[in-house]
J domain-containing protein (Stentor coeruleus), 358 residues
Amino acid sequence: MILSFSRAFHRSGILLKAQDFYKILGVKKTAAEAEVKKAYFDLAKKYHPDINKSPNSKDKFSEINTAYETLGDKEKRKIYDKFGLNADEQGSKMNRNARNYEYEESFFEQEPPERKKGEDIIISIELSFFEAVNGCSKTLNYEKLGICGSCKGTKAKAGTQPVKCYTCIGLGFVIIPRGSGPVQAICSKCNGTGYIIKQYCPPCKGSGFNTIKHSETVNIPPGVDSSFIVKSQNKGNISTSQGNSGDLCVKIRVKDHPILKRNGFDLHSNVKLHMGQAVLGGFVEIDTLHGKIEIKIEPGIINSENLRLTNYGIQHLPPNSHMRGHQYVDVQVQIPKNLSKRQKNILEELAKLENNNS
């Protein structure tokens, strides 16, 4: 697979002086092809701008590649050995390809492999009404994809080690001489990893990853409701392409309360009054998040009237956790179906008084 490096040089600023290519690569003129190649790879690894951050690394790397472009090609090497850089008409054909070139910036900027995030893990849990309202902590035990415990991610069988790829000498790429300049390609021997595994790890089958058991404590904030998702970043499956791990997503389901009904951050409840309480008023006991309290009923309250208890609702979620909802109490006046004789006489007398006053 050839990467998108196009030309290694373009005509521009740096003028290549007449130099000894053998001296640049540190080999003798009688050096064999394999010796030249090894010397080039050693120097390329040392001065590659992605590895060597010194100011002159690009120029040095350019110089090394220029030398290898000639000495790594049998025909160009013959011409160079015969004519050198300041050659006559035959030598100038090679010279035009080797001088007055500057390394393109893009040559040093290899497109990094796509780093995909690991897969998320979704776990559903059930909370009691008060666990959801007040917040809580839950310890969850689950399985996820992680680093293989046997090979520690090396992919090699326990007791063995990956060896440096002899083709790319551990770089993960090779430089291929071309007429228009060298191009960089992923090493086909090691698939760009820079190393070779002779015995793969049996438990993970050479993937470096395996299913592991994991325990995670998740903090549930006050105010969550059913279908709310609490995320713990990077606590999901590990990425198989050097990206971030996935998230642990905890989906909430909240049990109902027998008396208090939730609507967002507000609560609703009912209070039943008999006719005397509705007419005369008084005090009644109701349930709240904080236990039972007494509230005052004003005389003459009517059926279905709503009483609001300010800030007796549920705490809002961040960033509004300083706010609370309200509790609304729905008044239900009970009309008796069966009256005692005394009750009937009292109501009849009340009716006569009302008629006389009207």
